[in-house]
Amino acid sequence: MNAIETDNLTKYYGDLCAVNHLELSINNEIFALVGPNGSGKTTSVLMLTTLLHPSEGSALVCGYDIVTHAEEVRSRISYVPQDMAVDIKLTGRENVRFFADLYGVPHARERVDEVLGIMELGDRADDLIRTYSGGMRRRLELAQALVHEPSVLFLDEPTIGLDVAARKKIWEHIRALRKKGMTIFVTTHYMDEADQFCDRVGIINNGRIAALGPPMELKARLMKDVITVRVDGDCTPPGLEGVVLIGRSGAEVTFTAENGREALPAIADALSRSGTNVRAMSLHEPTLDDVFLQAVGQQQEPHGFSDAKFRIMLRRRK
Ligand SMILES: Nc1ncnc2c1ncn2[C@@H]1O[C@H](COP(=O)(O)OP(=O)(O)OP(=O)(O)O)[C@@H](O)[C@H]1O
Ligand SMILES: [Mg+2]
């Protein structure tokens, strides 16, 4: 039995199809749903955590139907929402204890101490949460989510707004939970995090899965070197054999080439002859950003480059 199994899971808000026939089987792994703002990540999580009814299709979580057996699902999962889920007027310990009592956790006092210790919050447990840093609050939400020993954990944007060190720490904890056998469904904007820390990635765009697989495999599918060119204004594709345009994101135009070292000067030459104003060029191995660009380009109705925030994220390429 898979921890999460969806069958054509679909959600409409009025005429807008926010999640479009999602087909996923997830078990014993960290699965990342990655995509731009408004691509359907939170809507997917809300359905899988029983908080939102699907318009069409169905899903089983821990073997139970999310609509007809919502109670059974809820007792076996935990969900850390995108927005803050702790009461800042309470202490860390009080917050976690509240959840322990809500779930009827046996030996609650010991279990609360244990999860606070796991999340490295033991020495700050009796301080008010409003005195915590963003990273500590996120870890407290994880402690709270773990208190009833769920088998599936849903984390919606667990690292958003955190600095690099705090993000790394959150991921260390997520990896440790995965080692203990938990299935973790995480959403993120950060392709680099999905690449580095997750077993499999589903790239979602306009509610549809555009690519699905382990990061290495997705990148290997491109099987090419990637050349990114930063241009001013329009860019006329160079029309060189073996050089394929995979997409444009803001000022950056991305190509794949069989042999990047040979293609780089040829592309520079062809673009300058066609009057394209090239400001910078780089050659790199494929990243998940490139996989996204290509996958979205292959979808029937690509709207992938319309989202300003996501364009900024794409520019943060390593
Ligand atoms: N309650 C709602 N009513 C109407 N439309 C909604 C509602 N919630 C979300 N949407 C729309 O559904 C689409 C998917 O939204 P969703 O919140 O699932 O995206 P997301 O991938 O989580 O975005 P973000 O990265 O910004 O968190 C968006 O177009 C959004 O505007
Ligand atoms: Mg969201």
What does this structure look like?
The protein has 11 helices and 15 strands. By secondary structure, it is α/β, with parallel strands linked by helices. Helix 3 (92-102) runs parallel beside helix 5 (134-146) and helix 5 packs parallel to helix 6. It is elongated and about 75 Å long. It has helices at residues 41-48, 70-76, 92-102, 108-118, 134-146, 164-179, 191-197, 215-222, 260-273, 288-298, 308-315; strands at residues 4-13, 16-22, 25-26, 30-34, 56-61, 64-65, 77-80, 152-156, 183-188, 200-205, 208-213, 225-232, 243-249, 252-257, 277-284. Helix content is 36%, strand content 28%. The strands form 3 sheets. A 6-stranded mixed beta sheet has the order 7-8-9-4-10-11, sandwiched between helices. Strands 1, 2, 3, 5 and 6 form a 5-stranded antiparallel beta sheet that branches. A 4-stranded antiparallel beta sheet has the order 13-14-12-15. The protein folds into 2 domains: 4-213, Rossmann fold; 221-315, no CATH class. Bound molecules: adenosine-5'-triphosphate and magnesium ion (MG). Magnesium ion is lined by residues 41-42, 82, 156.
In short:
The chain has 11 helices and 15 strands. With 318 residues, the protein is an alpha/beta fold. The strands form 3 sheets. A 6-stranded mixed beta sheet has the order 7-8-9-4-10-11, with helices on both faces. Strands 1, 2, 3, 5 and 6 form a 5-stranded antiparallel beta sheet that branches. A 4-stranded antiparallel beta sheet has the order 13-14-12-15.
